[in-house]
Every structure is written in C-alpha cells, then in structure tokens.
C-alpha cells in the first residue's frame, strides 16, 4: 500500500503544474518546479494522517522528477534497513493540474495538484484500479 501511495504521489506531482495556470494552456514544459527531488512529509488516507520519518542514516522517502515525462519513487525499506528501494522509471502526461502516470503504457495513477511552490508540493493521488485516493504532501529543500 505504501508503494502505491508513493507512486500515486509521484504521478500526481508530475501531472500538476502551478495551480494558477490556465489548464488549457499548460504543457509539460510548464513544470520546471517539479523537476527535482520531493521528500515525503505526510499522507492523509481515509481521514488518517501519517507523517514521514527519517532513518538514522538520514534517508527518507522521496520522489524525483529527473526529466520531463520521467519519474522515480524511492522509499526506505524499513526503520531497521534504511537502504532505498526504487520504483521506475515511470512516464507521465500533464494536462492542466492533472497528471496521469503510466507503467507499460497503462495509467496507474492520476494526481491532481492542489499546491506547487519551490518548496511544497501537494496533490491528491488516485489509484486507477482501486480508485482509492490519498492527499500527499512533499517538500523540497
């Protein structure tokens, strides 16, 4: 479930650009703020807020937009094994404030950006199969 939530979060981030832009004129080139590492801060799922933690070696879950239309999800295996596991590369297509994330040509998640600044990314991530949604908050330092 945690992997799916992070994947949804990444997809959502990619799909969204600045929330103040006209959704009809937005393109993937409008996303320079997205192209960086975004560290997971919190998730709200079914009314429960879960905050991210940092391992003793400093590692914490994050997503990264490495280039237009490519993203990866990195998460810490456990609090005792602070090594990263990654998922990706995935592709994305942004239309206005909505990002669709693809794996093997199939949409896996849809993210709707609610806030995007130089240091904060917030979105609602929806799984394409289960239709479960979670609100995600990421920070960039």
Mean pLDDT: 80
Number of DSSP helical runs: 1
Rg measurement, Å: 14 Å
Strand content: over 45%
Number of DSSP E strands: 9
Find the structural class using helix and strand composition.
mainly beta
Measure the end-to-end span: 26 Å
Strand order of the largest sheet: 1-3-4-5-6-7-8-9
In sequence order, what are the helices and strands, one letter per element? HEEEEEEEEE
- Poorly predicted runs are 11-29
List keywords for this structure.
mainly beta; eight-stranded antiparallel β-barrel; 141 residues; 1 helix; globular; 9 strands
Please explain how this structure is put together:
The chain has one helix at residues 2-15, and strands spanning 37-45, 48-51, 62-67, 70-76, 84-95, 98-103, 106-116, 120-127, 133-139. The radius of gyration is 14 Å and the shape is globular. It has an eight-stranded antiparallel barrel. 35% of the residues are buried. The longest helix has 14 residues, at 2-15. It has 141 residues and is mainly beta. It has one helix and nine strands, in the order αβββββββββ. A hairpin with a 2-residue loop joins strand 3 and strand 4. The two termini are 26 Å apart.
